[in-house]
Amino acid sequence: MGAQVGRRPPNSEGARMRNLDADISKTSLFKSDLSREDLRTHDATRCPNCGSLALYVDPIRGERVCDTCGFVLDEALVDQGPDWTTFEGEDRIRSGPPPSVMVPDKGLGSMVGNGLRDAKGNPIDARSVAALNRLRRVSHWTRYDRVERALAPGLMQLSSLSSRLGLPQDFRERAASILRKTIEAGLSRGRAMDAIVAAVVYLAAKQLGAPRGLHELAQATGVSVHRISLTAKIISREVGVFARATRAEDFVPRFASQLGVDPGVRERAMNLVGAGNRVKGLEANSPVGIAAGALYLASEERGAPLTQAEIARLTGVSEVTIRKHYRLLKDALPTSMSRPEAA
Prior knowledge:
Layout: H1 13-26, H2 36-41, E1 55-58, E2 63-66, E3 72-74, E4 85-88, E5 91-93, H3 126-141, H4 146-165, H5 169-184, H6 193-207, H7 214-221, H8 225-240, H9 252-259, H10 263-276, H11 287-301, H12 308-315, H13 319-332, H14 335-338
Antiparallel strand pairs: 1-2, 2-3, 4-5
Helix pairs in contact: 4-5, 4-6, 5-6, 6-7, 6-8, 9-10, 10-11, 11-12, 11-13
């Protein structure tokens, strides 16, 4: 008739193990009866497996996980936050690098990479690799338009010439902008790219107030002075690149620094050039020649003479030109100006 009232029923070791297995199956760590519909209708802030509120998102794996039981609620999550990128130091920005005129497509183009794995890190099969290689070749062929394809070798020559001349970044960008306008205007057809690059560097340096001499550019590029001057005139007229006329004052500081003269010699040369600008006989002379003659005269007055060959080798003018402007400055200036001032 069953167990007696008031007494515990007999319970063996096997019965206890069976009861324990039943309890574990009812409260399993990952319940097998959780269907997709249950996951959709449950509270999004709670774990559908254990009911815990301790949910966190793993940004590396893109998963939402319960911190209590380890149940994965969502996977392959898309990060809706800003795309932070670090380019320099510790500063993070939300966008890519700014457009650059030193790149044919201004850095706004795209290209197929060389990776052999997909977005999830799985290896790509051989057939897909062959297809990607074909897409990569087509992307390389169609990456630039007509103007950009003609601009690519010009920008390479421009970077090389700027490095040889020691031009700063703003000079390079101004020259690249003029070069792009020149090619867009169709002026590169029938003309050598090295002459065009030398001409745009010449015009950019004039615009920024630190001109480079034609002889200096001719030595760096191997293009004749006449071709550089003619190409620069055509580009200036057709593209509308206007710059003030070069003056001797623009060359004296750079020449003095490269010659390694004392500051007193440089100041004296600047005073001589400034006084020479008011003399009508020097108006039609070359600014580079006037600067070279002023440096030679100033060094002689200050007792630290420079050789004519040294100045001619640096400035690109002949020794005859230096002597000519030396005599013009010495004869045109008053006696009080042609002598060093007493200390």
